[in-house]
């Protein structure tokens, strides 16, 4: 009887617990504005957004909850940005653990991808920085050993040396071997990562401490990689120069064509001269130059004829301007130069005549006034 009551009681408890769980699920599926406001006040943005993800149409205060969902999303993104900036400030100040704690706490409140990515990236940078510090310490220790051991050996030859001093030398020799092995491993790791300058620093010091076949082999690999990189950099530099040359040639070609299209013959000749200097021996450009010279000669003759016509019409200044345009195309054009000089003399003479005509005429002698009595 007692066992039956216990079994019945257990079943009843299980039923009640299931009902509570079901009730909790139902209530969780139906958030209230008060509950959401509580979560937002405590910056629990992840929980708030999860609760607001699905709002049934018949839910009381559905419109209010939708507004709160919009606000929660905006607040969450603002919080995320603030925490990212705070973590960056901590990292720049060297407070790596504080930066990591900031991101972990933020992830607990709003588990977004940017925060997770920032935490992973911070961890990678922290590991790299630790490795850099360890490597710097190893190099510093190797450099000290490289100086201390010869000094100890010299001291041994010129000063009394106790058993303790001999033990110290043995200890330093043991540490030199360990440092050389560590520097060799450091150099190999740097080689695999293509950090050639770091590999050179570690391997060169390792060889100074202990010249082993492993160090020599790694230095040989370093020399090969350095040569390959130098060749690659030279090729990339050459390609960059060639690409810059092609762009410059294309720009000059466009300038030449635009100037020809606009009848700007002098600009066309200047640009073409620059282009031919960059692409010597180009027959296409040579043909273009001959055609351009012919076009310029035709234009010069047209301007000479136009200037002569204006000069005959008495339009001296306009004629001079036209002949000046000829000299702009060909400064060595003798006929245009002579015409300009002639026109200038005429203009000077006309200016003198105008100035003389503008002067007031001298007063004519008048009869003397009658004497005053």
Précis, in short:
The protein is built from 13 helices and no strands.
Question: What does the secondary structure layout of this molecule look like, with pairings?
Answer:
Blueprint: H1 2-29, H2 33-41, H3 45-51, H4 62-92, H5 96-109, H6 113-158, H7 163-192, H8 196-209, H9 213-261, H10 265-278, H11 283-312, H12 316-329, H13 334-358
Task: Please tell me about this protein's structure.
This protein is mainly alpha-helical and 373 residues long. Among the domains are: 89 residues; 86 residues; 72 residues, Serine Threonine Protein Phosphatase 5, Tetratricopeptide repeat (Alpha Horseshoe). It is built from 13 helices and no strands. The longest helix has 49 residues. The N terminus and C terminus are likely disordered.
Shape: flat
The major beta sheet can be summarized as: none
Which series of helices and strands comes N to C?
HHHHHHHHHHHHH
How many E strands? 0
Tally of helical runs: 13
Strand content: under 5%
Q: Mind telling me the C-alpha Rg?
A: 47 Å
Arithmetic mean of pLDDT: 85
Which stretches are poorly predicted, pLDDT < 50 over at least 5 residues?
1-28, 367-373
Helix content: over 70%
User: What gap, in angstroms, lies between the N and C termini?
Assistant: 174 Å
Structural class: mainly alpha
């Amino acid at each position: 009887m007692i066992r039956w009551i216990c079994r019945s009681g257990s079943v009843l408890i299980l039923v009640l617990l299931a009902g509570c769980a079901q009730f909790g699920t139902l209530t969780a599926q139906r958030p209230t504005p008060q509950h959401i406001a509580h979560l937002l006040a405590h910056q629990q943005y992840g929980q708030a957004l999860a609760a607001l993800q699905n709002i049934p149409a018949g839910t009381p205060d559905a419109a209010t909850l939708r507004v709160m969902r919009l606000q929660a999303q905006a607040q969450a993104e603002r919080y995320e940005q603030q925490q990212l900036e705070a973590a960056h400030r901590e990292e720049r100040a060297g407070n790596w653990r504080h930066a990591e704690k900031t991101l972990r706490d933020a992830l607990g409140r709003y588990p977004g991808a940017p925060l997770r990515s920032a935490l992973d990236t911070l961890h990678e940078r922290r590991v790299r920085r630790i490795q850099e510090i360890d490597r710097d310490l190893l190099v510093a220790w190797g450099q000290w050993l490289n100086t201390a051991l010869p000094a100890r050996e010299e001291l041994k030859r010129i000063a009394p040396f106790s058993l303790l001093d001999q033990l110290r030398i043995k200890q330093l020799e043991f540490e030199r071997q360990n440092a050389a092995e560590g520097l060799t491993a450091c150099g190999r790791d740097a080689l695999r990562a293509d950090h050639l300058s770091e590999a050179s620093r570690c391997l060169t010091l390792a060889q100074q401490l202990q010249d082993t076949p492993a160090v020599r082999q790694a230095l040989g690999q370093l020399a090969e990689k350095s040569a390959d990189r130098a060749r690659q950099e030279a090729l990339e530099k050459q390609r960059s120069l060639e690409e810059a040359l092609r762009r410059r040639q294309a720009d000059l070609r466009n300038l030449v064509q635009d100037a020809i299209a606009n009848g700007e013959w002098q600009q066309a000749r200047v640009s073409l001269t620059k282009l031919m200097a960059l692409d010597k021996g180009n027959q296409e450009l040579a043909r273009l130059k001959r055609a351009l010279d012919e076009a310029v000669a035709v234009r010069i003759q047209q301007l000479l004829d136009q200037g002569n016509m204006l000069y005959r019409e008495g339009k001296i200044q306009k004629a001079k301007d036209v002949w000046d345009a000829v000299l702009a195309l060909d400064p060595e054009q003798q006929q245009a130069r002579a015409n300009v000089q002639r026109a200038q003399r005429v203009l000077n003479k006309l200016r003198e005549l105008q100035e003389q005509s503008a002067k007031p005429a001298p007063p004519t002698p008048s009869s003397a006034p009658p004497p005053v009595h």
